[in-house]
Amino acid sequence: MISTKNKPQRIRYDIKIRRLQVAKIEDLSQSLRAITFTGEALDTFQSDGFDDHIKVFFPNADGQLVLPQIGERGVAYPEGVEKPAVREYTPTGIDLVGQTLRLEFAIHDAGPATTWAKNVQLGQEIAIAGPRGALVLPMEVNHYVLVGDETALPAIRRRLSELSQGSTAYVFAEINSEADEVPLPSAADVKVVWAYRRGAAVTSAHFLLEQVQQATLPTDDVQVWIGCEREQVRALREWFWNNGWDKDDVKHASYWNKGTAAYHEPHD
């Protein structure tokens, strides 16, 4: 169990909309594309949680980047123009001195964000807002269990990059095939299990749960984090809760919901 001094800490940020330009495009795997953005507005960007999420505003069908105004009554868009598609992503590769920020796009559907990421060109512009806040999980435990599908790989990769030598991380990642594997660099001792769908429909089976159930995992001095489809998250967290892990040690985030566009549930 995590001691009181290592309990998660909540941080709140002021919301600011930042315009950014594409500076670099890199394919990490068949289904994960990393895009690095640059912009002077990044000099005050802040993100302390490895699974923070920011809102990304994409150009509309006319190629216009229509941005809202943030006022006392919330968010308001200009009248008479098509609103942009807005999706949420985990910020990675943050360099405030160099004023760059990397986002990693799971190429898994035909939505507006995926279409944009597939066809993106250097110099194109987007905008971001947030993060609204962070839930900073403890770094002093010895063991970390990270469970997620393609949409959670950016957060998992960021967490692993933050871990220190001497700690152990157990990673369970659901992907379609070996072509979708990505590097998972870390100073920690990382043990990786890839759960392959092999062409099966996403959420057609509990691929991650099956792999987790077969593993021998620590139950003390451990932080468990789960990020994937909503129903998969529920099944995984229930299994951990019912098999020796304290509820306070199991954090989870529904990164998407089958049949629902632009869904993201805040982590618990």
TrEMBL record:
Pfam families: FAD_binding_9, SIP. Residues 15-138 form the FAD-binding FR-type domain. InterPro entries: FAD-bd_FR_type, FNR_nucleotide-bd, Riboflavin_synthase-like_b-brl, SIP_FAD-bd, SIP_fam, SIP_rossman_dom. It comes from the Bacteria. Belongs to the SIP oxidoreductase family. This is Siderophore-interacting protein. It comes from Vitreoscilla stercoraria.
